[in-house]
Amino acid sequence: MFKTPEQFAAANKATVDSLLSLANTALASAERIAALNLNTARSLMEDSVSGAKALMGAKDVQEALSIQASLAQPNVEKAVAYSRSVYEISAQTQEELSKMVEAQFSDFQKTVSGLLDQAAKSAPAGSDVAVAAVKSAIAAANSAFDNMNKAAKQVAEIAEANVAAATNATVKAVSATAAPKKK
After folding, report:
1. What single-letter DSSP state applies at residue 79?
2. Are 144 and 30 in contact (CB under 8 A)?
3. 3-class secondary structure, 2
4. Per-residue pLDDT tens for 118-144?
5. 3-state secondary structure of 127
6. Which residues contact 137 (CB under 8 A, 6 or more apart)?
7. How many Å apart are CA 171 and CA 168, to the nearest integer?
8. How far apart are CA 183 and CA 168, in angstroms?
9. CB-side exposure of 172: number of CA atoms within 13 Å?
10. Helices (H) and strands (E) in the chain, counts
């Protein structure tokens, strides 16, 4: 498969570079999630303290219930924002990883195609039917990969739209229940 040690070394370097790129992408995503979690925990602690102080300053049960109700909507909105942020980080990471896989598949396709062309040139007479069959199989695999990739992108777009719709519905529902009722 490799004619020279340089080709073998280049293939190994490309593999290591790809693995490092995948690892860096995964670590960057984990870093973003960790930062989000720390910021969310800090915010929750600050909000809990200020909410507790407000409740302790209530003059009667009615005021305490009113304060507690006023704290619910911001907490739900923050939970929704947190979920949205986690989803966005995950979606961006998936997109980056998908692009890397597509690039690797494209490089693999080119390599196999080049090897097949070389093999066809040095193949004995009458083997063109076998070479054509292999090329047809490769074309079918490429088509299947493209179709699978398109379907995965459509699923991701639908999921993103559903997450956005669910998020908006949750915020509206909380806003409607937290809004003071007119008599």
Report:
1. H
2. no
3. coil
4. 777 777 777 777 777 877 887 887 788
5. coil
6. none
7. 5
8. 27
9. 6
10. 3, 0
Q: Nearest CA to 78 among 35, 47, 55?
A: 47
Question: Would you list the DSSP string of 34-51?
Answer: HHHHHHHHHHHHHHHHHH
Q: Are 97 and 18 in contact (CB under 8 A)?
A: no
Residue position matching structure tokens 């007479």: 125
Provide the whole-model pTM: 0.65
Q: How far apart are CA 45 and CA 107, in angstroms?
A: 50
Burial readout 91-106 (b: 16 or more C-beta within 10 A, e: otherwise): eebeebeeeeeeeeee
Q: 25-62 burial by CB neighbour count: b if 16+ within 10 A, else e? A: beeebeebeeebeeebeeeeeeeeeebeeeeeeeeeee
Residue 24 structure tokens: 């860096």
Paired tokens of 170: 């949750």
Non-local CB neighbours of 175 within 8 Å, separated by 6+ positions = 73
